[in-house]
Design a protein that fits this description.
The complex is a heterotrimer. Chain A is of the alpha+beta class. Chain A has a single domain, classed as Roll (SH3 type barrels). Helices cover about 30% and strands about 25% of the residues of chain A. In chain A, helix 2 runs antiparallel to helix 3. Helices cover about 80% and strands about 0% of the residues of chain B. Chain B is built from 18 helices and no strands. Chain B is globular, with a radius of gyration of 20 Å. Chain C is mainly alpha-helical. Chain C contains 5 helices and no strands. The longest helix of chain C has 27 residues. Chain C is elongated.
Chain lengths: ~120, ~400, ~140
């Protein structure tokens, strides 16, 4: 598997085929005597901005702490939850439980639903 | 039946994407100042666009990826970010110009100055995005945009010398200000080859759930739809050449352009022009707003679909709400949309290489397209477009200064 | 090197703010006279609404005043500035009267003013052709 070609920046979907965002980063464990292995997928603004420049990553982290769902640190999904890698990366998780949709839910509740006709994020 | 009805996707893309304030004003200025001499630029722009639109539809149908999806996956975030900044910045300026086109249309109809129309028009565009489905936007805009056929009727009624029109399809040396001629050629190409059209078209193909069985339909839409738009643009140029040029009128302001159809269509020509601008710019404003929102949502992997309630794709809805709100502000402040239009055309030329180079790589990638990769004809046309757009990028800014 | 890069900005701004040539100013004058004439023709044929016609005539008059003011400060050689000034003054007067007559819906009076404007337009065109050929 080519990690950069097949995994990084690919779209992720959960058990229900709900969009979860894109693979922003990968955590690799490099042991002294073992082969390097991927342990987690990272999702979130600070991770992706860090790829442009570390200063942007730090700024993104600071802003995320002041406004929005105020999550500490990036969303980390264990690599063991990856079911298949094809057109999308399919994960054996519920998107809502992972924190990947925190911003989506926050914007829906605090902005969109306050505008008439916006609907309800939780309604089917 | 569904496939036949979906041909309207091409019609709205061509009318909304081709005839808008940029293409009308550049074609009209070209006709008023140089007669038929710049028809070749419209022909070249139309030809390029046919290939680019067909490619973006093919990418969507075969790979089930939009252009933006594929670009992010293939090139990664840092490169995607550069494209995002360039394309979105220019697309935003074009959106301001389109809202201004609607506002100007309302100004000449009612006599009420365009800044007063900025807020109601922005609200109307936003409301249609907020409540409407993709097919409502698609079909509604295409039906309303049919009023632009009045340009074609006017061009025929003015009885141009068709042999002169035909010979102008080949480039020739200008009789007059060369800098101005070059600038208008650049602007026409920039107005015709709009990257946001590719993003909108491929997103629409995914919204409509295209697959490989749609490839022949895709070719038909790209060929017929874009040709329809190109012919309408040529009609605008011909009308300006025959109606305005003999009077010595150079189009510095929008109200002057409103006189274009009054000679050929004495009874309702003025109203056809105003309504053409209102509806064509309305369709374009919807397209561009969607294209920008699609760019963000697809690039960052958010939920996106015009067919979902806003709360179900909150970030997507937030983006288009924000950009429409922001785009109305320059108009409220009285900034002339024509000046924004001309500047955005030149900047479109400058950013074309950023949009088209990665697209060429994508269209030759076997992972995305398999056996449906580009052939040598498509690659050649795109390569020529890249060269032309690169040259345009180099010369457009100095020409804008010398010629504008 | 950084300083040189930033120097391009004032250079571009200077170029952007360059004054139009007398020939370009004459072309603009011909254009605005043509606009007033065409708007007048369209109104007489009941093709355009009153408000639009009046606003376009007022805009034409305003632009003519601005451009002719600039042109006459530094007129091109070999043209009679007195004739040009008088022609443009008469043109603006005709356009102003046309704008008032739109409100009064006085078509015969409007037609007379438009015919007079056309005569001034011909004179200006001849002057413009002279400036063009002297380039």
């Amino acid at each position: 598997m080519h990690l950069i070609r097949d995994v990084l920046d690919k779209k992720m979907v959960d058990r229900e085929h709900c969009d979860m965002g894109r693979v922003c980063g990968l955590v690799m464990h490099v042991g002294e005597s073992s082969q390097p292995r991927i342990t987690h997928i990272l999702i979130g603004g600070p991770t992706v901005w860090m790829r442009l420049h570390p200063a942007l990553g730090r700024l993104s982290t600071r802003l995320a702490g002041m406004w929005g769902p105020r999550r500490e640190g990036a969303v980390k999904i264990p690599w063991s939850r990856v079911e298949t890698i094809g057109r999308d990366v399919k994960l054996d998780v519920e998107a809502r439980d992972t924190g990947a949709l925190d911003w989506e839910i926050w914007i829906a509740k605090h902005i969109i639903e306050r505008i008439p006709g916006g609907g309800s994020e939780e309604a089917e | 039946m569904k496939k036949i009805l979906q041909i309207t996707l091409g019609i709205v893309t061509s009318i909304g994407g081709f005839l808008e304030i940029g293409s009308v004003m550049t074609a009209a200025q070209a006709g008023a100042e140089f007669g038929y001499q710049l028809l070749w630029a419209l022909l070249l722009g139309t030809l390029c666009l046919i290939f680019l639109v067909e490619m973006s539809g093919r990418l969507a149908a075969v790979s089930r990826h939009t252009v933006v999806d594929a670009m992010r996956e293939r090139f990664g975030f840092p490169f995607f970010f550069i494209v995002l900044v360039g394309i979105v910045l220019v697309a935003f300026m074009v959106l301001v110009a389109e809202l201004g086109g609607i506002a100007y249309g309302m100004q000449i109809l009612t006599g009420i100055g365009f800044p007063w129309w900025a807020i109601p028009i922005s609200l109307t565009v936003w409301l249609l995005m907020w409540k409407g489905s993709f097919s409502l936007i698609e079909n509604g805009a295409s039906l309303l945009g049919l009023v632009t056929i009045s340009f074609m009727v006017a061009a025929i009624r003015l009885r141009p010398e068709w042999s002169s029109v035909g010979s102008a399809m080949l480039p020739s040396m200008p009789h007059g200000d060369k800098a101005r001629y070059g600038f208008l050629a650049v602007s026409i190409l920039g107005a015709s080859i709009s990257p946001y059209l590719m993003y909108f078209y491929s997103s629409g193909a995914i919204e409509e759930k295209w697959d490989r069985t749609y490839l022949p339909i895709n070719r038909f839409i790209a060929g017929f739809g874009m040709t329809f738009g190109g012919v309408l643009s040529m009609a605008v140029l011909i009308v300006a050449a025959l109606a305005l040029r003999p009077q010595g009128i150079q189009l510095d302001t929008f109200p002057q352009a409103a006189l274009m159809l009054t000679t050929a269509l004495p009874k309702y020509g003025f109203y056809f022009f105003a309504l053409s601008m209102v509806f064509a710019c309305f369709g374009a404003a919807l397209e561009i707003s969607l294209a920008i929102a699609y760019f963000f949502a697809q690039g960052f992997g958010w939920n996106w679909s015009q067919n979902l309630k806003p709360s179900k794709n909150a970030r997507f809805a937030f983006v288009y709400t924000l950009i429409i709100l922001l785009a109305g502000i320059p108009l409220v402040l009285g900034i002339d949309p024509i000046k924004v239009t001309m500047m955005s055309m030149a900047l479109t030329s400058a950013t074309l290489p950023i949009a088209i180079v990665p697209f060429l790589f994508l269209m030759n990638d076997p992972i995305f397209l398999g056996k449906h990769r580009n052939g040598w004809i498509s690659n050649s046309v795109v390569a020529i477009v890249i060269v032309i757009s690169f040259v345009l990028a180099l010369i457009s800014i100095p020409l804008e200064i010398a010629g504008a | 090197m950084r300083a040189k890069r930033f120097a391009i900005v004032p250079i571009l701004l200077t170029l952007a703010c360059k004054q139009p040539t007398p020939a370009e100013q004459m072309d603009s004058i011909v254009s605005w006279l043509g606009t007033a004439g065409m708007a007048g023709d369209a109104w007489l044929r009941h093709t355009t609404p009153d408000k639009y016609t009046r606003q376009t005539l007022e805009l034409s008059s305003q632009r003519l005043q601005e451009i002719s003011g600039e042109l006459l400060k530094a007129p091109p050689a070999k043209i009679d500035t007195a004739i040009l000034d008088a022609t443009l003054t008469r043109s603006r007067a005709h356009i102003a009267r046309m704008a008032r007559l739109v409100d009064e819906r006085n078509s015969p009076g409007f037609r007379r003013e438009l015919d007079s404007l056309r005569i001034q337009q011909k004179v200006v065109r001849q002057i413009a052709d002279g400036v063009e050929s002297a380039k």
